[in-house]
Amino acid sequence: MSPDRRTLLSAGLVSARLVSARLGVTAALASRTGKATTPAQTESCDWSSAGNELSCDADDRAAVAHDFGNIVHRQPRAVLKPASAADIGRLIRRTSTLGLKVAARGQGHSTFGRPLTEGVVIEMGALSAIHQIRSDRIVVEAGATWERVLDVTLAQGLTPPVLTNYLGLSVGGTISVGGIGAGSSRQGMQTDHVLELDVVTGQGEELTCSPASNPGLFDAVRGGLAQCGLITRATLRLVRAPERVRRFQLLYPDLASLAADQRRALAEDRFDQLQGAILPDGAGGWRFQLEGALFYDRDLPPDDDAVFASLSSKRDSAVVTDLTYRALAFAKLEALLRSKGLWSNPHPWLFTFLRGDNAEQLAHEILDQLSSEEIGPLGRVTFYPMQTRAFGTPLVRLPDTSMVFPFNIVHFPASTDTAKVEQTVSKNRLLYDRIRLAGGVQYPVSAIPMAPEDWKDHFGSMWPRLCEAKRRCDPLNLLTPGYNLF
């Protein structure tokens, strides 16, 4: 088949999927306004055998009928607030006899309805205890946020090697997808630093898994999109936390010069954390920014001359700031967005990884089709390189190159117009297919409609292994239906 015909056929298939996706988004948005109801939503529930933690209260159900994305909305039949993993196992065994789906909800920060179901939602925030901290590890329940984990570990001078930029996410939630952060350019994903997991499978079994015990389940759960088991407890690796951080924000006139310095900085290990952003400039164009951080002890500050050596950014335009390690969090941006009423607007975000050998060209072409108005004045496009040798989680998918670039379109639009949200989701799908044809993959927290054949393509050579784990651990396909994998 010729490249032109293959592209045309792909476009036709995409169009068909987008029609279906648009209908699904429209129905979901309608359900938010009370215009759509399913039979499961109107039935009462009397499941005494499921435990006293199960609620069918209308307010409890409404509170978990949406997620951070505010695009997809589904009202569950019931909500479980577990006191233990045993409660979750008991619930799954009971719902399996009723044919009801089950989804775990951490902090609800999915952008496209992944933790939603018309069956039963498990509020994992009820399981948030810190059980143990040692010099090299911490044991936490899955509903704990990374913010709480960091507060506890920093009191001991310790930190997880990789932290998400936004610390308000749950431990179980990020381990289920991968867990990327500023340290990933050198340290990989959060899943690469998990030592052991306690899991409840789709058959209601409570199991412990690690590289040495139940390794197949361990690999199926880390980055497995909660398809084979729900994480209830995690043992995480810890390292010594730095005393101070020096942050460098370097400005560039264009994408090419930004990428060149990012590549140089990564190759030379110039920073402990390396990221980059493409920001609206307020005049319809873009600003290009490298964001690097160096860790240091108070009596041994970094050598700024060494940092700037051979970089093309003008030193007099750079912003250099000394911070505490804790101050690198996303909280300031969250506060700003909340103050402007944008935090609860729809978030049709797109997260992808580009191949290192065509990242600049592809990113440049996409930017030419993207307006600053679309992403909003406080939105951004993140773009920076990572070495794939730092990544080792089997189900965390990356392009097959030694270097990849996260390319994420983080929309904070001022409009809540349903039609515009649908347009953005449709455009996300088109951009994703373009990126996929160029050898890229998505990071599976995106607002993209996906069919099972799309997921098969996404997981590639790992798809048979995931299917086998699903068959063993969740044969009735009860868990986490929002991804539409099976």
Would you kindly provide a written description of the structure presented here, covering whatever features stand out?
There is one protein chain. This protein is α+β, with helices and mostly antiparallel strands and 486 residues long. Among the domains are: 126-241 and 469-473, Uridine Diphospho-n-acetylenolpyruvylglucosamine Reductase, domain 3, CATH 3.30.465; 244-451, Vanillyl-alcohol Oxidase, Chain A, domain 3 (3-Layer(aba) Sandwich), CATH 3.40.462.10. Helices cover 33% and strands 21% of the residues. The chain contains 16 helices and 20 strands. It has helices at 3-32, 39-42, 58-63, 85-98, 146-154, 171-177, 184-187, 215-221, 255-267, 304-308, 331-339, 359-368, 372-375, 418-437, 452-459, 463-473; strands at 54-55, 78-80, 102-105, 120-123, 130-133, 137-141, 158-159, 194-201, 206-209, 229-237, 239-240, 244-252, 273-280, 286-296, 319-324, 350-355, 380-383, 386-387, 403-410, 441-442. The longest helix has 30 residues, at 3-32. The radius of gyration is 22 Å and the shape is globular.
What secondary-structure arrangement, pairings included, does this model have?
Elements: H1 3-32, H2 39-42, E1 54-55, H3 58-63, E2 78-80, H4 85-98, E3 102-105, E4 120-123, E5 130-133, E6 137-141, H5 146-154, E7 158-159, H6 171-177, H7 184-187, E8 194-201, E9 206-209, H8 215-221, E10 229-237, E11 239-240, E12 244-252, H9 255-267, E13 273-280, E14 286-296, H10 304-308, E15 319-324, H11 331-339, E16 350-355, H12 359-368, H13 372-375, E17 380-383, E18 386-387, E19 403-410, H14 418-437, E20 441-442, H15 452-459, H16 463-473
Parallel strand pairs: 2-4, 3-4
Antiparallel strand pairs: 1-2, 5-6, 6-10, 7-11, 8-9, 8-10, 12-14, 12-15, 13-14, 13-17, 16-19, 16-20, 17-19, 18-19
